[in-house]
């Protein structure tokens, strides 16, 4: 860098020191070179310009081989922190047998996906599906490419395929020792059709997967070169600041654009709204700052509709009332729970309540769009690029083949970026302009126009027998959504299949509607349902006078109807052993345990996870989560244990922030919270130690890892609080509770 | 018209005096490595150096940084070989990565005045938010960078 004399001497030292020879890693990646990093960073800026050069050969839509043996992998998933470019590449290269140090990755084209009959199969990044759903066809793509490259070499040498071996992209003719590189036979391979597709490896044969791999994504993220959606810059681009109706489902009554039209840089004031687009007004200017400041001065009158006096307190009352209302949908009915409850030696009853939550990622929502008569381009970080394309087609009437969704790296998604409301809004704004426009939402707009984790109320009643074990179980949950879903999976998930041995059960639910948009929030349903379920199990254990770990263990061991009981016990034992469960702790410190498997209706795969939270609470009620011990089933493999561990940590942090302080409340029909001061993230000072204990407890591939730990944060913490203070937490966040047990 | 000294280059920018430095960097000049997170100096995603001090550029009026030395993530090192960047890569610190330029700039300012910070120093001085919870790896990487800088 250029140094200036004003610089502090130590600043000089720190900013100029480098270490000779670069950095050492077990593996080195081409992205670490300046040229490759520049290529990678260019993906979102000019996404229609692939990394792939003219002299490179596409073997199949998933991968391209260059003359210098560089392999470019097409990634059909969105990257938002899961290191999916690395994992996706590993799944293909496991079979391809290329030189991993020559692998680079780029986004698959959404446009091509549609033009070529959904060639990339599934481009949505959600439902923990990246590995579960894609792995086998990615392995197949890698294996198929390998066999075609081998067949090409066999053809060049006129020898049988069986005489050839391959390693790191170098094919050897074993009898003669002759060698050919992938880059030398790629063109020939592209023309070869295999008589039959090769078999793919089973997990016990993996050599690349199941081992930690440094992340391809990292180098881009340490020098500012990675382009998130919000960083897109285009020639002639304008900037827009948007304000949607503060009361959801409201309308724009009128606005006075004469007040801002003459402000510096302002180009236009435009309206947006319609089906699935919250109505509002945007100011378009030559910079975001000009747009935002003008928007702040724009007088807008809103038609608030019928929801202008709604409050989350009112919704809560409605949900509480629904607990008593008839007509609930029955999910589970086993034995005669009402009779068993009457006859039980002891009855335990509890009602749990949870607030709306926002996703609160770091990158405020944004989308850049250019709409012309015959072509639409959209630059956005989205979890659902296919739907983004379809939405753009619908809004503009431009044929799908002429719509380009340039997916960008995402500064956190957590389910929110499934919605594409930012895309619909930006396309609608861009339609009214003759230049590309980048719409940036303020943090306040991002917080106040979410698709929130639904509020929920749940009631449990259990009857315990003379031995303290449950004989009756009656559970009702009230789901609250803007549009009650036809598929209530999120509302009932986890509660629909209680793993513990309980002979008489009833589980039913009601759905209730409000005007507040709701959506999926990492773990989709489990962060609510597991909180109730595993807190209530803790209540039962204490009512029975038993250790909460042993109580669960006994109920699992004794459940001959539950096929995963043994695996659950293994994970539960791991969490207990590794956390030091049962050991003496200092006064004011305690442990809470919770377990589950992320089961969802209609999906056979599970990921068993048990969490032990070690918590301290002072007499004054100051709480600190000291440590999480997370035991998680890996099944027969993890694609990248290094990334998997980070995913688990992320969930602990996300869950803990929500447990401590986060809630979205509604007053006068609108969201009260606005920014990180009233919707706080977890701070470094509050960060617990997180120990991730991977354990192979099942032999089938797991459902996933990116949202399979979060559900057990809240119950493990709250169960620990009970162990310390005797206070049972039945609603969150904890900031609304007084945990003090006397003077300090 | 303001003249700004950024990453060793001089830029003339025609903006209103109250314009936050963040938007001058991102929109006017095109240095998008510095991120917009909250607009209220709450999260630190927009951290840059002004005369070697870590500053949250989203609330820093441009008129107040004229004549000062401004460094952004792009200017921290010409070849991404600052000890912090090396340590960050070694430890695979980032997850979604959005807050990381700000974290690195805050860490660089800390190391400049305190070449061997303790855990407590780091936690006290670096208050940037990370949604993915990379805090422990950030702390380890800062210690590692301090080592690398001491060896070089």
Would you summarize the structure shown here?
Chain A is α+β, with helices and mostly antiparallel strands. In chain A, 29% of the residues lie in helices and 23% in strands. Chain A is built from 18 helices and 27 strands.
How are the elements arranged and paired?
The complex is a heterodimer of chains A (744) and B (152).
Chain A: H1 9-16, H2 34-45, E1 57-60, E2 63-65, E3 71-75, H3 84-96, E4 103-107, H4 110-115, H5 129-157, E5 164-167, E6 170-173, E7 178-181, H6 182-190, E8 238-244, E9 251-255, E10 266-274, E11 277-285, H7 288-297, E12 300-303, H8 312-322, E13 329-334, H9 337-343, E14 346-354, E15 366-371, E16 376-380, H10 385-396, E17 403-407, H11 421-430, E18 437-440, H12 443-448, E19 456-464, E20 470-481, H13 489-492, E21 504-513, H14 526-543, H15 548-557, H16 565-579, E22 589-596, E23 609-617, E24 623-633, H17 641-660, E25 666-667, E26 670-671, E27 689-695, H18 713-725
Parallel strand pairs in A: 3-4, 8-18, 16-17, 20-21, 24-27
Antiparallel strand pairs in A: 1-2, 2-3, 5-6, 6-7, 8-11, 9-12, 10-11, 13-21, 14-19, 15-16, 15-18, 19-20, 22-23, 23-24, 25-26
Chain B: E1 2-6, E2 9-13, H1 21-29, E3 47-50, E4 53-56, E5 69-71, H2 83-90, H3 100-113, H4 119-125, H5 135-151
Parallel strand pairs in B: 1-5
Antiparallel strand pairs in B: 1-2, 3-4, 3-5
Helix pairs in contact in B: 2-5
Verbal overview:
- The complex is a heterodimer of chains A (744) and B (152).
- Chain A is built from 18 helices and 27 strands.
- Chain A has 744 residues and is of the alpha+beta class.
- Chain A has three domains: 53-202, 2-Layer Sandwich (Aldehyde Oxidoreductase, domain 4), CATH 3.30.365; 229-306 and 365-440, Aldehyde Oxidoreductase, domain 4 (2-Layer Sandwich), CATH 3.30.365.10; 313-356 and 452-736, Aldehyde Oxidoreductase, domain 4 (2-Layer Sandwich), CATH 3.30.365.
- Chain A has a seven-stranded mixed beta sheet with strand order 10-11-8-18-15-16-17. A five-stranded mixed beta sheet of chain A has the order 13-21-20-19-14, sandwiched between helices. A four-stranded mixed beta sheet of chain A has the order 1-2-3-4.
- Chain A is globular and about 80 Å long.
- Chain A starts with 8 loop residues before the first helix and ends in a 19-residue tail after the last helix.
- With 152 residues, chain B is an alpha+beta fold.
- Chain B has two domains: 2-75, Beta-grasp domain (Ubiquitin-like (UB roll), Roll); 83-151, [2Fe-2S]-binding domain (DNA polymerase, domain 1), CATH 1.10.150.120.
- Chain B is built from five helices and five strands; from the N terminus they run ββαβββαααα.
- Chain B has a five-stranded mixed beta sheet with strand order 2-1-5-3-4, with helices on both faces.
- In chain B, helix 2 (83-90) crosses helix 5.
- The longest helix of chain B is centred in the last third of the chain and has 17 residues, at 135-151.
- Chains A and B meet through helix 1 and helix 17 of A and helix 1, helix 2, helix 3 and helix 5 of B.
């Amino acid at each position: 860098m250029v140094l200036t004399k004003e610089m502090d001497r130590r600043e000089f030292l720190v900013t100029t020191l480098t270490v000779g020879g670069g950095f050492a890693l077990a593996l080195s990646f081409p992205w670490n070179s300046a040229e490759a990093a520049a290529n990678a960073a260019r993906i979102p800026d000019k996404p229609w310009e692939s990394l792939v050069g003219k002299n490179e050969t596409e073997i199949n839509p998933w991968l391209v081989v260059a003359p210098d043996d560089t392999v470019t992998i097409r990634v059909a998933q969105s990257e938002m922190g899961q290191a999916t470019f690395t994992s996706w590449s590993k799944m293909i290269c496991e079979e391809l047998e290329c030189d991993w140090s020559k692998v680079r990755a780029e986004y698959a084209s959404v446009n091509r996906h549609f033009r070529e009959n959904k060639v990339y199969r599934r481009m949505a990044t959600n439902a923990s599906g990246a590995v579960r759903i894609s792995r086998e066809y990615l392995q197949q793509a890698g294996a198929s490419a390998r066999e075609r490259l081998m067949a090409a070499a066999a053809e060049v040498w006129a020898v049988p395929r069986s005489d050839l071996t391959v390693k790191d992209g170098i094919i050897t003719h074993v009898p003669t020792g002759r060698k050919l590189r992938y880059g030398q036979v790629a063109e020939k391979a592209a023309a070869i059709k295999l008589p039959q597709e090769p078999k793919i490896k089973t997990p016990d044969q993996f050599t690349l997967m199941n081992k930690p791999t440094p992340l391809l994504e990292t180098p881009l993220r340490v020098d500012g070169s990675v382009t998130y959606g919000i960083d897109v810059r285009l020639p002639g681009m304008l900037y827009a600041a948007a304000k949607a109706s503060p009361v959801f489902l409201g309308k724009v009554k009128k606005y006075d654009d004469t007040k801002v039209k003459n402000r510096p840089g302002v180009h236009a004031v435009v309206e947006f709204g319609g089906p699935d687009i919250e109505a509002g007004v945007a100011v378009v200017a030559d910079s975001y700052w000009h747009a935002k400041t003008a928007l702040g001065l724009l007088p807008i009158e809103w038609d608030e509709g019928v929801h202008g006096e709604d409050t989350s307190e009112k919704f809560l009352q409605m949900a509480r009332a629904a607990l008593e209302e008839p007509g609930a949908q029955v999910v589970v009915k086993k034995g005669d729970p009402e009779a068993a409850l009457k006859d039980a030696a002891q009855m335990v009853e509890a009602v749990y309540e949870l607030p709306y939550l926002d996703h609160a990622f770091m990158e405020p929502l944004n989308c850049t769009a250019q709409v012309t008569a015959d072509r639409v381009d959209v630059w956005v970080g989205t979890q659902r690029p296919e739907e983004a394309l379809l939405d753009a087609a619908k809004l503009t009437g431009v044929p799908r083949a002429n719509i380009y969704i340039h997916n960008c790296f995402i500064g956190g998604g957590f389910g929110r970026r499934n919605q594409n409301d930012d895309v619909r809004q930006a396309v609608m704004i861009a339609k009214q302009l003759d230049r590309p426009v980048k719409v940036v939402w303020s943090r306040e707009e991002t917080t106040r126009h979410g698709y929130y984790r639904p509020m929920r109320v749940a009631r449990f009643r259990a009857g315990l027998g003379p031995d303290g074990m449950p004989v009756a179980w009656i559970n009702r949950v009230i789901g609250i959504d803007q549009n009650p879903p036809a598929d209530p999976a999120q509302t009932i998930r986890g509660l629909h299949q209680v793993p513990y041995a309980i002979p008489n059960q009833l589980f039913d639910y009601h759905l209730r509607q409000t005007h507040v948009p709701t959506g999926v929030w990492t773990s989709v349903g489990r962060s609510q349902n597991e909180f109730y379920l595993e807190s209530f199990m803790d209540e039962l254990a204490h009512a029975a006078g038993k250790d909460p770990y042993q109580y669960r263990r006994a109920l699992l061991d004794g459940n001959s109807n539950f096929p995963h009981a043994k695996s659950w016990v293994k994970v539960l034992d791991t969490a207990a052993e590794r956390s030091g469960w049962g050991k003496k702790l200092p006064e004011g410190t305690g442990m809470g345990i919770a377990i589950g498997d992320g089961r969802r209706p209609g999906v056979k795969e599970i990921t068993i996870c048990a969490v032990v939270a070690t918590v301290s609470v002072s007499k004054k009620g100051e709480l600190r989560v000291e440590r999480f011990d997370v035991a998680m089933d890996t099944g027969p493999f993890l694609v990248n244990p290094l990334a998997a561990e980070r995913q688990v940590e992320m969930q602990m942090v996300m869950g803990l922030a929500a447990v401590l302080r986060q809630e979205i409340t509604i007053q006068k029909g609108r969201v009260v919270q606005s920014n990180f001061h009233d919707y706080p993230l977890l701070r470094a000072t509050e960060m617990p130690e997180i120990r991730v204990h991977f354990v192979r407890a099942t032999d089938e591939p797991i459902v996933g890892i990116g949202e399979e730990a979060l559900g057990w944060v809240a119950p493990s913490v709250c169960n620990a609080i009970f162990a310390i203070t005797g206070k049972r937490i039945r609603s969150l966040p904890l900031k609304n509770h007084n945990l003090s047990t006397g003077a300090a | 018209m303001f003249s700004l000294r950024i990453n060793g280059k001089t830029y003339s920018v025609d903006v209103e005096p109250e314009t936050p430095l963040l938007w001058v960097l991102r929109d006017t000049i095109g240095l998008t490595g510095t991120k917009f997170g909250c607009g209220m100096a709450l999260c630190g995603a927009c951290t840059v150096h002004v005369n070697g001090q870590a500053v949250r550029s989203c609330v820093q009026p441009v008129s107040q940084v004229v004549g000062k030395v401004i460094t952004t993530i792009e200017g921290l090192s010409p070849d991404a070989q600052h000890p912090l960047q090396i340590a960050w890569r070694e430890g695979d610190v980032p997850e979604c990565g959005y807050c990381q330029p700000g974290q690195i700039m805050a860490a660089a300012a800390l190391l400049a005045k305190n070449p061997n910070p303790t855990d407590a120093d780091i936690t006290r001085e670096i208050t940037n938010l990370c949604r993915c919870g990379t805090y422990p790896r950030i702390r380890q990487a800062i210690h590692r960078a301090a080592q690398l800088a001491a060896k070089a």
